């Protein structure tokens, strides 16, 4: 089952670890805050998107059951 990518935009500090891990799901805006390029994460992409979310130093990203 697909999951939903979620972000805490207040917590994001713009470290961009998530962008390195999954640049097709995460980007940074002009203010250095994360942007979700796709919120729905199919099962096939879940391992690498979850890993990218875990790489966030301030735990601003997570996946939820949809
Ligand atoms: S890794 Fe975390 S702090 Fe860095 S841009 Fe992504 S969400 Fe923001």
TrEMBL record:
InterPro entries: Fe-S_cluster_ET. Its cofactor is [3Fe-4S] cluster. Keywords: 3Fe-4S, Electron transport, Iron, Iron-sulfur, Metal-binding, Transport. The keyword Signal does not apply. One of its GO terms (molecular function) is metal ion binding. This is Ferredoxin. The lineage of its organism: Bacteria, Bacillati, Actinomycetota, Actinomycetes, Micrococcales.
